[in-house]
Amino acid sequence: MNKLLDTFSDIKVSTNPEDLICYSFDASGIEASPSAIVWPNNTEDVVKIMKYTHDNSIPVVPRGAGTGTTAGAVPLKGAIILSFEKMKKILDIDPENLNVLCEPGVINGKLQRELEWKGLFYPPDPASMNFCTIGGNVAENAGGPRAIKYGVTRDYVMEIEAVLPNGELIKTGVKTAKGVVGYDLARLFVGSEGTLAVFTKIRLKILPLPEEVITLLAIFQNLESAGDAVSRIISSKIIPRTLEFMDREAILAVENFKPVGLPEDAEAILLIEMDGHPAAIKKEAEKTLEICEHLGADIKMAEDEYARNNLWASRRAVSPALYHIKPAKISEDIVVPRNRITEMLKRLRKLSEESRIKIVNFGHAGDGNIHVNIMVDKNIKDEYEKGLMLVKEVFSHTLSLGGTISGEHGIGLTKAPYIEMELSKTESNIMRAIKKVFDPKNILNPGKIFPDNCTGQQKP
Fold first, then answer.
1. Nearest by Cα to 159 from 137, 141, 132, 177
2. CB atoms within 10 A of CB 251
3. What does the alpha-carbon distance between residue 49 and residue 39 come to, in Å, rounded to a whole number?
4. Which residue of 9, 40, 406, 411 has the fewest CB atoms within a 10 Å radius of its CB?
């Protein structure tokens, strides 16, 4: 590492113990100490760093803001952290061709605000949007509440400039609306979790800002009715901008943490938004209201921007609020077909009752994405092991209903032991072979996605 410091005198590099501690973990709570942290200023710096690390067989972990929950940014095997905090420029906004070019360290929420001032719109909106970076979003194929109508990050990535593990610079994808020359490497990079290449510039598709937004809060006294409402709304040919779900435990957690007036006696709530032309979304809102009321819901409409922001503050506060129930939790983000949501919620409730472990559920019900939070104390060995057994049961139920074990959090380290529950051996071998083509030395984010013997330590 001393040689590394000498080699890159014009690039900020640190081996200070306090920096090593700060970059040893992400939002998963798992930690493993890096050998050093390097902060590149531009693409040329990344090329130099990757050439050096490749020649010296030094593992590298690209890092955005460390908001991932599956330990994707945890540096195994004594890797160095390649932090993109300095590469945070919005390089070009093109309103005529509806795209934006930015560096990977740009904060999602900042990009959203910059575009909105110009009457433009970037839909992917993870709960951590005010902290997470575009590079991290692309690496994890991040989603968010608006995915039901607008899709996920993959649907907006047009072009990626990337540095391969050997330091070679490539550009994949196109800046045009269409392009089918060769394999679509840009789509392969999206969701690759920093295991194939290091992103240095990203071009994203953007849209005109919707004219108007209507926000509804549907309050249910019956859990199954809330699940049924989701599938009925969609089958009625209404595609809301968002269709978010919170169960009773999630509601109580938020009200105890950051009270905004959510109904504490409700079994579940749906936060529903429509956007677009005022006349069209008014009709959709009326039809949605009718469906929910038929299922016994009480409906409230946000009267102004303040009320709307209050509701969204409560939704985005769920995850941090849960830490006030337990000092730690096991968080999963399963997805089931929309018409199986009710069945999945019933199974989760039964698992909670049988195990006597609290399971808190919320998430993007409109696309079947449920964030399942198993409330266990990771410092109590028996309780934590019981929680891990529940994870496998949750995944088994998910797959039996035609779902997937990860909707937007990726696999990283925490889900690697379960990946072969969903992938066949042939599918897994093909993916491993792709990794080997890009990274034959296995220096780029080693130990992630595919299970091996690498583990970090659970952060207290």
1. 177
2. 24
3. 10
4. 9
Residue ranges, CATH 3.30.465.10, the chain = 90-208
Q: Which two tokens stand for residue 104?
A: 């990977």
What CATH number should be reported for the domain whose range is 90-208? 3.30.465.10
Q: Where in the chain is the domain with CATH 3.30.70.2740?
A: 326-418
User: In which order are the strands placed within the sheet that holds 99-102?
Assistant: 90-94, 99-102, 198-205, 157-163, 169-173
Q: Tell me, which fold does domain 326-418 have in CATH?
A: Alpha-Beta Plaits (3.30.70)
Question: How is residue 258 annotated by DSSP?
Answer: S
At 250, which helix (H) or strand (E)? helix 248-257
- The DSSP-derived string for 358-403 is -EEEEEEGGGTEEEEEE---TTSHHHHHHHHHHHHHHHHHHHHTT-
Tokens standing for residue 184: 């679509």
Backbone conformation region of residue 449, classed left if phi is above 0, alpha if psi is from -120 to 50, else beta: left
Q: What is the pTM of this model?
A: 0.94
CATH 3.30.70.3450 domain span(s) along the chain: 212-316
Residue (of 209, 230, 322) closest to 272 by Cα position: 230
Indicate the fold that domain 2-85 takes in CATH. 3.30.43
- CA 54 → CA 6, 58, 76, 164, 355, distances in Å? 17, 6, 16, 10, 48
Question: Given this structure, which CATH class describes domain 212-316?
Answer: alpha beta
Q: Where in the chain is the domain with CATH 3.30.43.10?
A: 2-85
Q: Say if CB 248 and CB 298 are below 8 A apart.
A: no
Give which of 393, 383, 331, 388 is closest to 362, Cα–Cα. Answer: 331
- Three-state secondary structure call for residue 341: helix
Question: CA–CA separation, 375 vs 43, rounded Å?
Answer: 42
3-class DSSP state of 342: helix
